[in-house]
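Table S2 (continued). Query chain:
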Amino acid sequence: MEELLINTPPDVYTAGREEMEALLQEGFIQSYQPYARNGLAILVPAANPADTRGLQDLGRPGVRVAMPNPAYEGVGRLIVKALEKAGGPELVKQVMEEKVASGETYLTRIHHRETINLLRDDLSDVGPVWLSEAIYQQNLGKSLDYVPIPPEHDVIGQYFIAHVDKTSRHPAAAKKFIDFMTGDTARKIYAGYGFLTGM
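Corresponding output:
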């Protein structure tokens, strides 16, 4: 896989808390703030041929899993936590070790592209993703649906935004954008796409 290189110095950056803390320590940003939250869901083909009903089913033999790689994708780390809540360390071991070794779990690098293609091409049976992505795919009305994750197993992710003080060339525009993203209008837009309200 080729590396994606962007040579434009950013004015604004959005990411999860871990990435923001790293940028803070490195002096790229001075602060960051939340602007959205998101839950998890299990994306499946519309007919749900594996009869997936919850995260525990990802450990079943024969169920092929498209899994965001926790080494590269923050959502993958949250899904691992959700697997542990649903089935303890044994379920995590089944999905993330045993089934990776057998080839039944495929670790993605860009899950919102790869998972969709793997499910549509019948190369995977299930793909845990952000709830907003699952809702979007279902709303397209083509070939994918999703299985909700109950609150007791779900792990909520939070999105943060920051002005990149170290490289910013347009600080006034960055401030306006951040003000918009953390305001009521943007929150209503995000809620319309399945994101969770409240910070």
